[in-house]
Design goal:
- The protein has about 280 residues and is an alpha/beta fold.
- The chain folds into two domains: about 170 residues, Rossmann fold, CATH 3.40.50.300; about 80 residues, no CATH class.
- It has nine helices and ten strands.
- Helix 3 runs parallel beside helix 5.
Length: about 280
């Protein structure tokens, strides 16, 4: 969950598809009903996004398996953020398809609908509620996920309290539960926002530069956290810190000029002459 919900951007369309239309084919809460029996949990096919003639994405195609931890790297302007914007409904492609599971067309859904079906995104800058305590941030994330913002002060049941506690343990914030979020370190704010996503039990999590600005110790702890989520969640991690990527990567996708330049293990990507030329060699 992000504390702010920017309005969707619609690029100058060649033949853009409408934002209204298909509704989730299952209940309001998380992505338990996502059908992945016939393909990956996330699939982008020939996605093109143009802004005033500039192609931020150029026939981008990639697939992420259920439970996979995928790292996305590439130089500035490669299309990484635009790709995540397309997945979360913030930007609509001019062409191409974006599917969650085998049946849910994300291009035809709003940002709120996409969040409600089990896709969570953490932006680069932490967007927590700084005047609230860590617990209150988690409580708000949990209740908003259930569509009960108006009853945020209602008493939590034991299952909800336990979910918050276990999530705080997982993100290394159990001892900070009653601290005001605004006085947390930068890394702790990043963990809190990840915790606010996890308490909603998303099926797919998008992390945008999660270790930017962190200390070495915080970066190491974040790597452990990402690896602990693999299998129970699908993760797409966009990051520039190659040491961090190397510590968590199973499969790496390199973007360049809006398209996939290379894909494979970190070792394979590091040795690819094209990747060295446009990114790693700089």
């Amino acid at each position: 969950m992000s504390a702010t919900a920017p309005m969707a951007q619609t690029p100058a369309s060649e033949d853009a598809r409408p934002g209204e239309g298909a509704q989730p084919a299952f209940g309001h809460h998380v992505g338990a009903g996502v059908d992945v029996t016939h393909g990956p949990i996330l699939y982008l096919d020939n996605v093109t996004v143009s802004f005033d003639g500039f192609k931020a994405l150029d026939q981008l195609s990639l697939a992420v398996d259920d439970g996979e931890l995928r790292c996305i790297i590439g130089p500035n302007g490669a299309g990484k953020t635009t790709m995540m914007d397309c997945i979360t409904g913030r930007t609509r492609p001019n062409r191409g398809t974006v599917f969650f599971g085998s049946t849910i067309d994300l291009v035809r859904m709003t940002e709120s609908q996409i969040a409600n079906i089990g896709i969570g995104r953490k932006f680069q800058r932490p967007t927590v509620f700084e005047t609230l305590t860590v617990f209150e941030n988690m409580e708000l994330a949990l209740k908003t996920a259930k569509g009960a913002f108006a009853s945020v002060r209602a008493t939590l049941n034991s299952e909800q309290l336990d979910r918050i506690e276990q999530t705080l343990i997982r993100v290394n914030l159990r001892d900070e539960v009653w601290r005001v979020a605004g006085i947390l370190s930068h890394g702790q704010k990043q963990w809190l926002e990840i915790g606010m996503l996890l308490v909603q039990e998303p099926r797919l999590i998008l992390l945008d530069e999660p270790v930017a600005g962190m200390t070495d110790a915080e970066t190491e702890r974040t790597a452990e956290l990402c690896l602990s989520l693999e299998g129970t969640h699908s993760l797409v991690v966009v990051e520039h810190d190659m040491e961090f990527v190397s510590s968590i990567a199973r499969k790496v996708t390199v973007l360049h000029e809006g398209s996939v330049l290379a894909e494979g293990s970190m070792g394979r990507v590091r040795s690819d002459p094209k990747v060295i030329e446009v990114y790693l060699g700089r």
